[in-house]
Amino acid sequence: MGTTEQLIQPSATTIAFTVIFIIVSIGFGLYARKYAKTAEQFFGGTKTFGGITIGLASAAAVMSAFGFIGGPGLVYKFGFTSIWMTIACGPGFAFGYWIIGKRMRAMAEVTDVATLPDIARVRFQSQTIRGLLAAGLFLASVAYLSSQVKGGAKLMTQMLGISEEWSVVVIFGVTLAYMLVSGMSGSILTDAFQGLVMLAGVVGVIFAFFALTGGDLTPIATSANFGPSFVDGAGAMPLQIIITFSLIFFLGVVAQPTMLSKMYALKDHRDLKTAGLIGGLTYGLTSLVWILVGYGALYIVASGGHEAIKDLDKASFLFLSKTGGVLQALVMAGLLAAIMSTASFFISLGAGSVTRDLAGALGHEIPYEKQIKIGRFIQVLVTLFAVGFGYWGGRAVAILGTLGWGFFASVTIPTFVIGLLWKRCSTEGVISGLSLALLLNILLPVLENFKIFKLPFPYYLLTIGTAIIATVLISFATKTCAGENIPPQIKPIFDL
Amino acid sequence: MISISDRFKDFLNMAGALLWAFLIIASWAGGGNPRMVIYGLIACAAVIVVYYLQGAVTNGKMSVKILIYPVLLNALFWVIAFSMIYYTRGQNLDLVCGMHPGFLSAMIFFWLGSFVTATLSFYLFFRSDYLPDETWDRFIASVRTMEKIR
After folding, report:
1. Percent of all residues in chain A with a pLDDT value above 90, rounded to a whole number
2. I need a labelling partner for B13 at 20 to 30 A (CA). Which of A159, A269, A303, A366 fits?
């Protein structure tokens, strides 16, 4: 993996914050054991938590290391363009609840839900859809986890001054420890705590940014290295990319498993109201980190405070190196929270996809009373595989690392958004959409990575659009589980 | 109240599919023809209206109040934000409150505007329009008459 330049010197405050954060996270994870008695709770946290917990947990799980490290790095290199992703996400939470929240929650009354493929199987009466979705979710979970490895390693090296290898062991070892005990319920509860830590980090960033810049971006606008395109609303990336970033991240929030699965984790339908509000506001506030840290790094270089940086991941640490003490510790704890909250969710998602759904779709349904035990075993395998892949995967990590947001949107929008909004959406339509989504999501990044073919816009716009178009067109021509053929227990959902 | 019938939803989904196709074309062509980009961005606003019209309904109906706020207002804020950033991109303009006018309009109209429409309205209208208690109770009553589906 290599070594990370030590931009920040570990301080007693930072080390103390880190240790306390880890201990408290483990504590919440262990406490959540009482909410993980059934397979539905262990894999889904189904009908267990209130609106504030779900709102905070959703925001924390959606905001990954990318929002704290990758995003600011893109702002440093391209100005505002990447910010469209994060400013679309925040309000996208409530939009997602508007269009599908009550229907997803209602599915937990119609059937025993533990995983997203459970809902898909029941809506479309299809093991094929269950299997395709499960395979896709598993693949993307591993990809997402792998992509957290590098960011996590660099972070802990900065925070504690330990090697990157030990950093990985600490982050993923701690996360796995409480996941083994309490599964998705543990993930939700710790995510809620980690969401609060992230909010505290945001406060630190706001203070640090305005102390550093006075809120004036003039040095960036007038800098010979940067200029007006770094401070305008379009940025320095090709303009057409804003089409993808604005829509896919607004509509795509509801398509993320981190959001969808939490809708049926709500104890009561009335909790949808609070969850939609808190989730969006929390994410919206944490997205200020992406914006302010990125522009803070630009300001530092533009005003001559540091030489230009080449490794974009260093932008965040450059900004943090200009803060100190409690502020620095707070922000870094927030970043650690972002990584662990995302990691815990995908460990559970990956394990649930294999234990409950892939096995069942292939005709080997694991007995209910054994699912939690086997699920724990699979969690260990998923974590080890993802960490190993992230560490040694090399080029494959770069390819699969692009499987994430767009991939999830391409498989879940046809299945759940269209599937629960439109009666005419058929089993054949969704199978077509899912199959194309899986194919294109592997093919296009491979072609891009081997420099054979690259689209002039993010490829996932094509995969999502194609999946939706195929689902709609095929649905018009087919009828399984559509219209009058919808299972009777599902029909009341469409009247909500 | 506006009726969002099954037939209308068929139309909305076909319109949605066409809009997605247009977005792909606009993104592909936008590199050589920037005007296609602003058309594509406006199409994004239309896409969110398509999904709002299907999701923000209760018992197959949407009130005019909801149609205006948040649905159409959200789309309008997007069109304003996109137009501002498109026409001010790359220009050396005086900063407003330390921010470029394009930057400011993206934050005010797109970010804050979407929060004020999508997020605030969801909270305000949850019980009155989105999910009244009697609607949920009716749903539960009909579900309880049937065996759970597996």
Report:
1. 68
2. A269
CB-hemisphere CA count at 13 Å for A188?
Answer: 37
Q: How many CB atoms lie within 10 A of CB B20?
A: 24
In terms of Cα–Cα distance, which of A208, A437, A478 is closest to A321? A208
List % helix, strand, coil for chain A (3-state, nearest 5): 75, 0, 25
Whole-number pLDDT of residue A277: 96
**Pairs of residues, one from chain A and one from chain B, whose beta carbons lie less than 8 Å apart:** 259
Helix-helix angle A116-124:A102-110, to 10 degrees? 80
Q: CA B97 to CA A362: how far, in whole Å?
A: 60
The pair of three-digit structure tokens given for residue A151, joined into one six-digit string: 């960011």
Record: contact A216-B95, CB cut-off 8 A: yes
A88: its two tokens: 């679309």
* Coil, helix or strand at residue A362: coil
Using the 8-state DSSP alphabet, how is residue B150 labeled? -
pLDDT in tens, B22-58: 999 999 999 999 999 999 999 999 999 999 999 999 9
- For A:185-224, CB contacts with B below 8 A are 214-218, 221
CA A495 to chain centre: 31
Q: Is the pLDDT of residue A313 over 50?
A: yes
**Residue A483 DSSP label:** G
Largest CA distance in chain B: 66
pLDDT of A2 > 60? The answer is no
Residue partners of A489: CB distance under 8 A and separation at least 6: A110, A111, B143, B146, B147, B148, B149
Nearest Cα neighbor of B118 from B81, B66, B79 is B66
Of B34, B99, B119, the CB nearest to A217: B99
- Choose among A463, A73, A469: nearest CA to A248: A463
Looking from the CA of A328 toward its CB, the CA atoms found within 13 Å total: 24
Mutation for testing the A interface, residue in B3, B18, B23 having most A CBs under 10 Å:
B23
Of the CA atoms within 13 Å of residue A419, those in its CB half-sphere come to 33
CB contact under 8 Å between A465 and B23, yes or no, is yes
Instruction: Kindly state the DSSP code that residue A49 receives in the 8-state scheme.
Output: B
Q: How do residues A41-53 score in pLDDT, each as one tens digit? A: 999 999 999 999 9
According to the model, what pLDDT value does residue A105 have?
96
pLDDT band at B63 (very low <50, low <70, confident <90, very high): very high
Task: Say which DSSP state A306 is in.
Answer: S
pLDDT at A5: 59
Tell me which long-range contacts A475-480 makes (C-beta under 8 A, separation of at least 24): A475/A422, A475/A424, A475/A425, A475/A426, A475/A428, A475/A429, A475/A430, A475/B13, A476/A424, A476/B10, A476/B14, A477/A428, A478/A426, A478/A427, A478/A428, A478/A429, A479/A426, A480/A124, A480/A125, A480/A126, A480/A426, A480/A427, A480/A428
Q: How far apart are CA A63 and CA A57, in angstroms?
A: 10
Q: Under an 8 A CB cutoff, do A229 and B90 touch? A: yes
pLDDT in tens, B138-148: 999 999 988 87
Q: What pLDDT is recorded for position A143?
A: 85
Tens of pLDDT, residues A57-80 = 999 988 887 888 889 999 999 999
Residue A272, chain B, CB below 8 Å: the answer is yes
Q: Give yes or no for a contact between A49 and A200, defined as CB atoms under 8 angstroms apart.
A: no
Helix (H/G/I), strand (E/B), else coil: A303: coil
